[in-house]
Amino acid sequence: MKSKYIPYKYTVLTAEDSLEQAKSFYEHINKRRSVRHFSSKAVAEEVIDKLILTASSAPSGAHKQPWTFCAISNPELKSKIRIAAEEEEYKNYHGRMGEEWVKDLELLETDWKKPFLENAPWLIVVFKKVHDLSQGKKKKNYYVNESVGIASGFLISAIHNAGLVTLTHTPSPMNFLEKILERPSNERAFLLLPVGYPETAVKVPDLARKKLSEVSKFYK
Ligand code: IYR
Q1: pLDDT tens digits for the chain (220 residues)?
Q2: Cα(41) to centroid of ligand 1, in Å?
Q3: Distance, CA of 128 to CA of 32 (rounded, Å)
Q4: Does the CB atom of residue 169 touch ligand 1 within 6 A?
Q5: Rounded CA separation 81/97 (Å)
Q6: DSSP state of 94
Q7: Which of 54, 120, 204, 209 has the fewest CB atoms within 10 Å, counting from its CB?
């Protein structure tokens, strides 16, 4: 199906303004940290709506937008998710991850207990659609992992931009989320993001980010 082409509304910046914007966006984004301790302070549903719309504006294979963002504030559902996630994480930390993995995580001071799954006012579970279902018929989706990964990046940036914090939590395996949230057969859990405010005086690990020269190579 061909689409109608329309003029692209584009803001032209001067080279100076472009550099200024690039710098200020980097400085803003570089302040983001993963936070593991949440306060129970509420976040309005309207905010969550906008965060999800931002994520869903991401590019995707053949513009299929192969994702569903489930936003959960219901306390009973959050408890169910915590219990199921902790069950899996207990097994991960007690053998399934292996020694090297557990050692690599020491700097993050994580363990199998996940109180943030109940404390955070919202959990957003990102589901990928391995294919679409249109009137019960399978329709192909493309580059699903790439598309949903990019959308999740948009979501994390939007959460930070709204003055909130999150954590990219991937309890493994995650299929309990499909069951608890009664998702259709074409959806697989991709990422779980608790969203809210940090606990008072929260601390984060003193980590440094790699330098530009360590993460890039320019060909001029
Ligand atoms: N899913 C576990 C373990 C874990 C794994 C990685 I890789 C991390 O960067 C952090 C944690 C957990 O959430 O504790």
Answers
A1: 778 999 999 999 999 999 999 999 999 999 999 999 999 999 999 999 999 999 999 999 999 999 999 999 999 999 999 999 999 999 999 999 999 999 999 998 899 999 999 999 999 999 999 999 988 899 999 999 999 999 999 999 999 999 999 999 989 899 999 999 999 999 999 999 999 999 999 999 999 999 999 999 999 9
A2: 25
A3: 25
A4: yes
A5: 21
A6: I
A7: 209
